[in-house]
Amino acid sequence: MVDPSDRRQGCTCLLDDVRCSLRAWRDPGALPAPFGSPATGCLIKEKTMKLLHKHQLAVLFLGCMAVSVAAQAEELKVMTSGGFTAAYKLLGPQYATSSGDTLDTILGPSMGKAPEAIPNRLARGEHADVVIMVGYALDDLIKQGKVDPASRVELADSRIGMVVKEGAAKPAIGTDSELKDTLLKAKSVAYSDSASGVYIEKELFKKLGIEKELAPKGKMIERIPVASVVAKGDYEVGFQQVAELLPVPGVTFVAKIPEDVQSVTRYAAGIPVNAEHPKQAKALLDYLASPKAQATVQSTGLDSVPR
User: Fold this and answer.
1) Nearest Cα to Cα of residue 226 among 256, 207, 251
2) 238-265: per-residue pLDDT in tens?
C-alpha cells in the first residue's frame, strides 16, 4: 500500500516540474546558458508539452482506478445463525474495512418453525449472498438446490455449555453423574430451539437416563437467547452453545458439558444459487475461514476446525 505522504510528495514534484517548464516556455532567456538561448526555446516547449501530456495521462489513470475500486465494492446480504454470530460481529467489520464491501446482516436460527429461521426466509424468497449456519442444516439447503454445493466452507466447531443466573452458586457438571444430579435438582431447565436444544431434548436426557424426570420441567426456548431467560430468573439453568451463552449479561457461565455426552456442532457457510454477488461472497467466506481469523473465532467460545 502506498503511503499517503509519498503521494503528496510525488504530486509536489510533478507540480514543480510543470511550473519550471512553463516558466522556461514563456521566457527561455531566464534560464542560464546554454539553456537560456532562444534557439532552445522550441525544444523546451516540446519537452513541456510532453511533460504535461504525461501528467494528464497519470491523473486520468488514477481517476479510472478510483472509479473501478468504487464500482467493485458491493453490499452483501448475510444471514447468520446464533452460534457463529459473536465471531462474525468481530470479523465482519474487519472484512468490510479491507474490502470496501458493506455487510447487511440478518440474524436467525438455522432451523425451526420461527419465521426468522434462515431456511424459512429462503423459502419465502428472501435474497442472501451468504448463509452461515449449522452444517447439517446447510446440507439440507444444498440438497434442496438453494445453496451452491461447491461454495460450502467449514467455519468452526461449537460445544454446549450451561449457565445459571448471576450470583447463583455454580453447580458441578464435570462428570456425567454430576450433570445428571444438577439436572434432577434444578426446578426448571431451558434449552434452545436450534441444534443444541434438539440434541438435549432428544438425546442428552435419554443418555443420562432422566428423560421422564426432565419432561415436565424442560423447556425449548424459541427465537431468543436461552441465557436471557435465565438472567431474568424465569429458568434456573440454561443450556446452549457456548458462543451463544457468553455474550449475554446477567448470567454466570458454569462449564461445557462432559465430552462423552457432548454434541459438537459444526458451523459452515455457503452461497445461495441466486446470490447477486457470488465473487464478493466467496471472498468473505475465505476471510472468515482464514488462519488469521482463528484467534478471534476462539475468543468467542468456538473451536477452530482442524485443517
Assistant:
1) 251
2) 999 999 999 999 999 999 999 999 999 9
Q: What is the DSSP letter of 189?
A: E
CA-to-CA dists, residue 120 to 46, 112, 221, 270, angstroms: 70, 8, 18, 16
The residues pairing with 102 across neighbouring beta strands, listed in sequence order, are 75
Query: DSSP 3-state assignment of 281?
Result: helix
Residue 111's Cα: distance from chain center in Å?
20
* E strand or H helix at 115: none
> Residue for cell digits 443450556?
239
Q: 137 with 111: CB under 8 angstroms?
A: yes
Report strand pairing: 160-165 vs 251-256: antiparallel
**Residue 175, H or E segment:** none
Query: In this predicted model, what pLDDT tens digit does every residue of 79-129 receive, in sequence order?
Result: 998 789 999 999 999 999 999 999 999 999 898 888 999 999 999 999 999
| Contact call for residues 106 and 85 (beta carbons, < 8 A) | no
> Are 77 and 128 a contacting pair, CB within 8 Å?
yes
Of 6-15, 28-37, 196-205, the range with the highest mean pLDDT is 196-205
CA pair distance 285, 268, nearest whole angstrom: 9
Burial class, 166, CB count within 10 angstroms (exposed 0-12 / middle 13-18 / buried 19+): exposed
Distant-in-sequence, close-in-space partners of 219: CB < 8 Å, separation ≥ 6: 188, 189, 190, 191, 235
Whole-Å CA distances, 73 to 7, 79, 147, 296? 23, 19, 23, 25
Straight-line distance from the first to the last Cα atom of the chain, in angstroms, rounded to the nearest whole number: 30
Q: What is the DSSP letter of 162?
A: E
pTM to 2 decimal places: 0.68
At residue 134, what are phi and psi to the nearest 5 degrees? -60, 135
Count of CB atoms situated within 10 Å of the CB of 260: 8
- Sign of the four-CA dihedral 92, 125, 195, 152: negative
Angle between helices 278-288 and 82-99 (to 10 degrees): 110
